[in-house]
C-alpha cells in the first residue's frame, strides 16, 4: 500500500479561511480527496489473495429482537470485501442469520466462555449492532471491552462504553448525536451546536478514532479532523448506522489504518447513499439498498 494520507497541515482547505486558517479547521472529503483515498486504499487485489488476508472479522450483536442490526453490519462487511466473517449473537438469533445469509458464520453465544474463542480468532471486532442493554449483553461487555483486538464500537456498544468509560487506542467509535450526548453526559442540542468540539472531546476521552455521524459527519483522531460533505436525509433510516459500522470493520480487516478506514468508510457510505437517492429519491431509502452502490465504489476503475 502507498504512503499514509496527508495530515491536516498539508492538505487543501476552504480558501475563504486562507488568512486565518486554524489547524483545527475540518478538511473536506470532497470528490478529489475521495478519489485520492480510493486510489490509495482500494487498489486491485493481489492475484493470489485468499480470504484469510481480509479477516476474520467478528460482529458481536444480535440480541433477541435485534437480529437485523447484526445482519446488516455483518452482511455489509462481506459485501465490502471482508474475508471470513463471524457473528457472535444470542442463541435465538443465530438461525435467522444462517437462513438469511449462509455466507456468514453465525455462532450462538450464551456466555463469556462462548465468546472467548471467537475473539481469539478475530482480527477485527465490530461490537454493538443490536447488542442490546439486557443481561445477555451485560455479561459479555467486560470481555468485549478487554479484548485487545482492533475494534469498531457502535450502537449499544457505545451505551456500555458510556456506562464504563475507558480508553482503547485501536478503536473506532461511531456515535450518532444521541449516542455522543450520552457519552459526553450532555444534550443532543449541545452536541449539534458544537459538533467539532464534541468529536474532539470524545476522541480525547476515549482515544482511537471517533466518527460523529449525521449531516456532515466528522472523523477525528486527535490530530486530523475531516468532514464528509456527501450524504442526504434519506439516510436517516433504521440500520444505516449498522451498514456504516460493518463497512468500517471491512476496511480495517483489509488492512487500512484506523483513521483511513474510518474516513474512507464515511465517504463511501455517504456517496453510496447519494447514488441511491439520485436514482430513486431520498424518501423510502432502505439501508441494505446501499450494497450495490457500495460495491461499485469499492471497485473503482483503474486510472
Ligand atoms: N433491524 C434492526 O434490528 C435494527 C436494530 N437496531 C438496534 O436497535 C437498538 C436500539 O437502537 P435505537 O434505534 O432504539 O436506539 P438509538 O440510540 O439509535 O435511538 C434512541 C433514541 O436516541 C435518539 N436519537 C437517535 N438518533 C439520533 C440522532 N441522529 N440525533 C439525535 N438523537 C438521536 C432518538 O431520540 C432515539 O429515539 C440498537 O442495538 C441498534 O443497533 C438499529 O440499528 C436499527 C435497525
Ligand atoms: N440528514 C443526514 N444527512 C447525511 N447523513 C445522514 C443523515 N441522517 C443520517 N445520516 C447517516 O446515516 C447513518 C445513520 O446512523 P444511525 O443514526 O446510527 O442509524 P441506525 O441506528 O438506525 O443504524 C449515519 O451514518 C449518518 O451519518
Give the full name of the CATH homologous superfamily: Ribokinase
* Principal-axes shape call: globular
The parts where pLDDT drops under 50 for at least 5 residues are 1-23
From the alpha-carbon coordinates, what is the Rg to the nearest angstrom?
A: 18 Å
Main sheet: strand order: 1-10-9-8-7-6-5-2-3-4
Helix proportion of residues, in percent?
A: 40-55%
Give the topology string: H per helix, E per strand. Answer: EHEHEHEHEHEHEHHHEEEHHH
Do you know the CATH architecture? 3-Layer(aba) Sandwich
| Count of beta strands | 10
Query: How many domains make up the 3D coordinates?
Result: 1
Determine the number of helices (DSSP H or I, runs of at least 4 residues): 12
CATH topology: UDP-N-acetylmuramoyl-L-alanine:D-glutamate ligase
Kindly state the mean pLDDT as a whole number?
92
- Structural class of the secondary structure composition? alpha/beta
What's the CATH class label? Alpha Beta
Cα-to-Cα separation, first versus last residue: 16 Å
Main beta sheet, described? 10 strands, mixed
User: Which small molecules are bound?
Assistant: ligand NAX, adenosine-5'-diphosphate
Strand content: 5-15%
Give the tags:
alpha/beta, UDP-N-acetylmuramoyl-L-alanine:D-glutamate ligase, 12 helices, disordered N terminus, binds ligand NAX
Report on the architecture of this protein.
This protein is α/β, with parallel strands linked by helices and 303 residues long. Helix content is 45%, strand content 12%. The protein has a single domain, classed as UDP-N-acetylmuramoyl-L-alanine:D-glutamate ligase. It is built from twelve helices and ten strands. It has a ten-stranded mixed sheet, sandwiched between helices. The two termini are 16 Å apart.
Amino acid at each position: 500500500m502507498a504512503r499514509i494520507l496527508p495530515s491536516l497541515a498539508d492538505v487543501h482547505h476552504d480558501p475563504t479561511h486562507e488568512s486565518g486558517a486554524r489547524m483545527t479547521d475540518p478538511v473536506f472529503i470532497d470528490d478529489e480527496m475521495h478519489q485520492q483515498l480510493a486510489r490509495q486504499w482500494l487498489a486491485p487485489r493481489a492475484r493470489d489473495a485468499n480470504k484469510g488476508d481480509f479477516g476474520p472479522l467478528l460482529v458481536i450483536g444480535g440480541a433477541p429482537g435485534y437480529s437485523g442490526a447484526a445482519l446488516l453490519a455483518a452482511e455489509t462487511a462481506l459485501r465490502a470485501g471482508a474475508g471470513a466473517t463471524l457473528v457472535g449473537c444470542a442463541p435465538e438469533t443465530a438461525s435467522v442469520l444462517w437462513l438469511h445469509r449462509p455466507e456468514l458464520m453465525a455462532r450462538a453465544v450464551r456466555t463469556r466462555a462462548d465468546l472467548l474463542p471467537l475473539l481469539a480468532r478475530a482480527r477485527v471486532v465490530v461490537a454493538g449492532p443490536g447488542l442490546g442493554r439486557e443481561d445477555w449483553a451485560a455479561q459479555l461487555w467486560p470481555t468485549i471491552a478487554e479484548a485487545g483486538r482492533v475494534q469498531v464500537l457502535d450502537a449499544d456498544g457505545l451505551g456500555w462504553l458510556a456506562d464504563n468509560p475507558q480508553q482503547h487506542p485501536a478503536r473506532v467509535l461511531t456515535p450518532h448525536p444521541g449516542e455522543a450526548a450520552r457519552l459526553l453526559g450532555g444534550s443532543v442540542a449541545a452536541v449539534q451546536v458544537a459538533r467539532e468540539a464534541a468529536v474532539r472531546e470524545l476522541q480525547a476521552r476515549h482515544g482511537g478514532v471517533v466518527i460523529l455521524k449525521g449531516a456532515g459527519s466528522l472523523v477525528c483522531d486527535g490530530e486530523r479532523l475531516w468532514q464528509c460533505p456527501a450524504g442526504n436525509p434519506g439516510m436517516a433510516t433504521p440500520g444505516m448506522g449498522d451498514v456504516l459500522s460493518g463497512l468500517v470493520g471491512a476496511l480495517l480487516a483489509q488492512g487500512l489504518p484506523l483513521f483511513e478506514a474510518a474516513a474512507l468508510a464515511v465517504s463511501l457510505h455517504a456517496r453510496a447513499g447519494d447514488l441511491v437517492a439520485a436514482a430513486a429519491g431520498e424518501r423510502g431509502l432502505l439501508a441494505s439498498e446501499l450494497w450495490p452502490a457500495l460495491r461499485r465504489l469499492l471497485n473503482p476503475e483503474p486510472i
